[in-house]
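User: I'm preparing a small set of examples for a lab meeting where we compare how different chains pack in three dimensions. I only have the primary sequence for this one, and I'd like the structure in token form so I can line it up with the others. Please keep the answer compact; I'll paste it straight into my notes.
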Amino acid sequence: MAVLGKLLEKISYECVRGTLEREVTDIVYDSRKVTAGCMFVCIPGAKADGHIYAKDAVAAGASALLVEREMELPAEADVTVIRVEDTHYAMAFVSAAYFDHPAKQMKIIGITGTKGKTTTTYLVKSILEQAGRKVGLIGTIETIIGEEHIPAQNTTPQSYLVQKYFRQMADAGCDTVVMEVSSQGLMLHRTQGFVFDFGIFTNLEPDHIGENEHKDFDDYLHCKSLLFKQCLVGIVNRDDAHWEEVTRDCTCQLETYGIDTPADLRAEDITFLNEGGTLGMAFTARGLVELPVRTASPGKFSVYNALTAIAICRHFGVQEENIKRALAAAKVKGRTEMVKVSDDFTLMIDYAHNAMALKSLLETLQAYKPHRLVCLFGCGGNRAKSRRYEMGEVSGRMADLTIITSDNPRTEEPQAIIEDIKIGIGKTEGKYVEICDRKKAIAYAIANGEPGDIIVLAGKGHEDYQEINGVKYPMDERVLIQEILEEQV
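Assistant: Understood. Below is the structure token output for the 489-residue chain.
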């Protein structure tokens, strides 16, 4: 509970009705969750405008409204109305104040970029915990607070949830938070109300452009750049063609890392490792840190991820042995996650669920010169058909064998989605089989694995369900693989 006037101290506002001397019991932005005494924040969203529900919120007991425009309310309504220019922005500061600015009690690390955010957050968490720190995590897969794992709805949650999680982390004894910072999160001011100690930029490629996202690539880039006006130290990938644009008007101290450019921290002597069906990388870190490194995940992008983690963790005084040990062992669920089924071939699970991600993944695996590169995937229902054509074409051109199966069909017929994928693969000379049942498709891949093969199960990654006609049924590929192996005995 807090006094309304105290919550508003960091923002510009106009009190158009009522008094600031009110007790606020909570901050709510979903009209279905209004409770007596709360502040209801009217957020204009892609599908609905919270202002429409202001009267309902007052009727349900809200003591204050945070609005962007004039509201017509009953004359007898006992409510304070605060008008601001942008309710997304204001909610971030109000939420930080409501939870008593928990970010000030911890070191906050924010990672933005098109690829690499998820993996790098887990790498950083692993390294810092090796060094004895207690680390909270917010990201695409989950939020981690101590032993609690909360499934994620958004890569970067609403500002109220960010601050709520920060408070829970600080109360649980966390001294550090590492979080993914999406372009949407920056655009919608979800990370306002506090300052990042470290802001990291991994890379930038066209993504999240379209209706309800970013209008064009320039807007996408601009939103990414906002992180470097909200952090004390910026750490950026100097190899990325856009790094100078992203940091042009930054207000932070800058450091760089890279492979192909004269960065402050560099990776040299890069080697691809393939040991008993397990893929990895080895390299030497030079510059700000001098260190031999091995990673437990494949490809050049895993070198970038490791460099990013090293660049961050050196600021925490982590011992070199702790960094080496963590990088050699760290794995991220559903991100080039290898599952041991044979000494003869490699089986991996990856979240690649669009053409760009699939192309990048298959290019990475081709570098290991496999006997065959086998790609098993499906596509989600109720999504653009173009994604199906594009993924089919990518796999047809790059894989030696494609196994087309089902993903999350949602309300579409799985076989209809497969037919769309076949249109794309039909533009190539790639070999394929189609097995609609995903478990049977995985069983086929394992039973027909040949020595030296790399088999990738793409699209599901960390997901542990399959969505069919609005229902999420349990389906974890790790569980499916274990069942298949037991059934083969």
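A couple of notes for your slides: The chain has a mean pLDDT of 94. The first strand starts at residue 2 and ends at 3.

User: Perfect, thanks.
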